[in-house]
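Protocol step 4 of 6: structure prediction from sequence.
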Amino acid sequence: MFGRAGLVLGAGTMEALSRTRIAMFGLGGVGGWCAESLVRTGVRRLTLVDPDLVCASNINRQLMATSATVGRSKAEALAERLREINPDFEPDVHLLFYDASTAGEFDFSGYDYVIDAIDSLDSKVLLIRNALSSPGTTLFSSMGAALRSDPFQVRRDEFRKVAGDGLARALRRRFRESGGIPERRFTCVWSPERRAVAAPPADGEAKNVKGSIVHTTAVFGFALASLVVEDVERKTQDGCDIVSRMVT
């Protein structure tokens, strides 16, 4: 099933990926694609956290959103799809909103990686702080993917180096208001693209809703998955190098 990935990454990395534990927060236009990319690359242990139901407006960009899944839980619909890809996939589904009342349900010391793909500012601040407080856990975070249409501008940087992103700017402000920007560094996926709103919201749409398009949001998700795979590969190779020196 994962032979083609193994030809790129090697047997050691594939074995490590199958044992890697990842918590995925937010399963929208970014998180769903990230989750599928990880599972198609051999990850079996993935915690899926999202309280929302699929709605028709999700269909343009969210992986699990189809005409058949409207009204279903996003997390459960995604878990079902991922089990169809790999019957050995072991999802841990949480239908909840991450905030101060639910944060205690997650012990981040039990995860190798936490992926932040949520856009609620208060929840994002709390998640980042809590994940970074676990020394053995690596956090990767998505900045704003809405109002971007050029996938060739998507990039990665340490959070302090992200410039021109409204979500990152709001995060910095909220961090400063609540104790300061975290000292521990973390990597973000983001885009400097600035695109004007093309049309006002349609009747019935909230005025604060921002447009988004799948070929960009998916690239954000794939980039987050790539950061995990790259890091697992690096750690595996470092371990092999140590063993090799010891044998020599």
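Step 5 (inspection) to follow. The helical segments are 3-9, 11-19, 31-40, 74-85, 121-132, 166-177, 214-247.
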